[in-house]
Each structure stands twice: as structure tokens, then as C-alpha cells.
Fold this protein.
Amino acid sequence: MLILQKGFNYSQDGPGNRLVYHLQGCNFACKWCSNADSIPKQNSKAKEYSVDELFNEIMRSRMMFFDGGGVTFTGGECTLQSNELIILLKKLKENSINTCIETNGSSEKLPEISQYVDFLIIDLKHYDGEIHIKWTGSPNEITKKNIAYFLNSGREIHIRIPVINGINDNPQGFAEFFSRFDCSNADFEFLAYHEFGKDKWKGKYQIENGFVSPEKIREFTEVFRNYGFKTVTS
Ligand code: SF4
């Protein structure tokens, strides 16, 4: 598996202390991506590991998985390496390791992958198809189909919305989209736009005035709570 970077973090990508792997390659090209290095399929900074190498590394690290922690696969888009990811996740589940993935939700294989995932994080950048293409370079149909599938199946999911001024800062639109479903097993998190990864675009960064105020995040929270949805912060 091609891994761009790895390291521990606490409760940002799933519960507890987690070993987080950033897989190389993404099928989206979000103009605000904070990890633009991870978008190309190949990257000289990324390193290839076999499933067994990763499995052994994770098992050696298990003492560190305190407070309900475990391992998280993110990206890039981790589901692009779904064949190996499924094998690895299966092995980890057989060994009682808590697993998490963070995904843009665009893989047809997500329902299959999710069988081996304890904590499933799906990002929705925009509910509108055309606006989604404009800012991410990709359609959102499969993401929306997968979200509908999980909401209808009643499995617990965690939905993250990156909130960017002038692009997707309409909480009512998002809430109306989700109101078509029973969201009792979902929670929602709103991530305020930041520019931590701007330098990685090497002068090609196109977002201007993307910052949102704390009031905007509170507005998202309030609108979603008024719809009866559960909201969280990490
Ligand atoms: S889906 Fe995530 S990793 Fe992929 S381009 Fe968008 S922000 Fe970057």
C-alpha cells in the first residue's frame, strides 16, 4: 500500500489515541485540500508497504491505542486502495483492533469496506452536484448514494462538512438534504476552513476569502440541532 505519512494523534480521526495512515492518491481535487501532496496517484515522498508490514507495525503499536483508540486510514482517499485495505482491515478486526476510515465517500466498495470498520467518517463537501464538481473536480452522486445507504441501514456514521466561505456555507441546504433520511444513527461535525496546507500548492492555491467565523459554525450547529440532528466537535 502506498502511504504518504503516518503518525499518532489523539481523538481527531476517530476515538482515543490512534495510529493514522495517510494513503497516497485521491480521486477528488478539492481546491482547499490541506494535503495537496496526497492527491496524485504517485509521489516520490510516499512509501510502499505490504499489508503484512502494516499489520505487524499496527500490532506492535497496540499498547498505544488507549482511551478506545486504534488505527485510522485516511488520505488522500483511502478507498482507492480498497483491495489491500479490505485485507488489512479484516486482519485487524480478527485481532480486535479498533478501526476507522475517513473517506470522501465516492467508492462503490464502501459498503463492503465498512463491514470491517468500527468508526466510519464520511466527508460531504457539497450536496449540490454541479457545485461539487466545480470545487472538487468530481461528482458527488456516489457519495450521496453511500450516505443514503448507511443512514437507511441504521449503522452509525460520522459526517464531516468542511465549511468554506462563499462555497458551501449554507447550513439550510445541507440540513434539507439530510432531512430526507432518518439520521438518528449519524452525527455531524463542521470543520471551519483553514489554510494550513496552502504552501503545498506551490503558488497554485485558488481559494480566496475562505475563512468562516465561529458564528457561522454555530449557525450550522443550530440549524442542524433544530432539525433534530446530533452535532459533535472533535
Ligand atoms: S477529498 Fe480530501 S484528500 Fe481528496 S482532494 Fe479533497 S480534501 Fe484533499
Remarks:
- The helical segments are 51-60, 82-94, 110-114, 129-136, 141-153, 171-178, 214-226.
- Residues 26, 28-30, 33, 35, 38-39, 75-77, 104, 136 surround iron/sulfur cluster (CB under 6 Å).
- The chain is about 30% helix and 20% strand.
- The mean pLDDT is 97.
